[in-house]
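From the shared-data thread, chain only:
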Amino acid sequence: MRNSVVFLVASGLLIVAAQTSISQSIDLPTSKQLIEPVPGNPQRLNSLPMSMAISPDGRYVVTVNAGYGTYESKYDQSLAVFDVQTGTVTDFPDDRTPERAKQTLYSGLAFSRDGKYVYASIGSESDPLGKDPPSHGMTDTGSGVLVYRFTEGKIEPERMIHLPMDQLAPGHKTKLVGQVDGDQGVPFPAAIAVIESGGAEKLLVAENLTDDVLVIDPASGNIEHHFDLTESNAVPSTYPIALQISKDGKRAFVALWNASEIVELDLQKNTVGRKLVLLKPASAIKPGTHPCAFALTADGKTLYVALANRDAVAAVNVGAGQFAVKG
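Structure, as C-alpha cells:
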C-alpha cells in the first residue's frame, strides 16, 4: 500500500550542505519562529523515502521513494540521487511503478561493491509472477530485484531478477493466494544486502512474506540458498524486514518484524544461528516491538535496533559469545 506523505531530506543527512549561519528568523502568530534559510539546506524528495544507500566512494546517497509519487514524477515511484559534492538532488522515476500498478518499490536498496549498480526491491502480492494480462496500459513486473546501472550519479534500469513462488516446508501453509491454504509462498523482497561468497558478489534478500532470507547470484539470478526463518505452520509469521552484515562479512543479522526478534545467520556455513527475543512474551497488552532498522558500530560489537512499536532504539551486544540487549 502506498502512502501519500511527502518527506524532506533532514539536515542531519545532508551534512555537506549544512549552513554555518542563519540569516533571519520569522516570528509566527503561534509564538514559534521560522528560520530561513533552513539549516542543512533540506531538499524535497519524491514521496515516502524508505531506505538510503551510500555509494562505495562516498559521493552519492540514493533513496528509494515508494509512496504515491508526485506530480513532478508523473506519480511514478523513484530512486533519487543526492550528490554530496554539489549538494543537488536528482530524481529518477521508474515507469514500471505508475499509480495503479500491481507492483511497488519497497525497502530494499543496496549498491554493488564496485558502485556500478544499484539493487532495489519490487514486490507484488496480487500478481507476484507478473502473469496477469496488461490492464490500463500497464504491464505487471511481478516480484523481484531491480538492477539499475549507476554512472556518475545517473540511474538507468538494466534488468530485473524475477523471484519465483517459494515452496514452503512440509506442513507449512499460506493463505496469501486466493485466501485458501496453499504451499507456495508469495515472494515479496524487503531489505537487500550485498555480500561476498566464493570471491563473487551475492545478494542477501529478506523475503517479507515467505519468512525466508535468500542468497541470490545477481549475475545469473539463481537462488543459491534459503534461510528458513519460519516459527509457525502459518506463513508468513515472522516477516523478515531488515538486514545488517557483520564487519567481517561472515554473519548477517535479520530483524523479524512480527516475531520481535533478531536472528543471526552464519554466511559461511549457511546456517541459522543465535536468536534474540526483544520482548517476551508478546501479548495484546504488551504487543511486539517490531524491529525495523539496524545500525552497526564501527568496531562491529554493538548493533542498534530501531523498535517501531516502542519509538525507541535497543543496543545489542553481537560480539563473540555475546548476543543480548545491553543494560
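The first strand starts at residue 24 and ends at 27.
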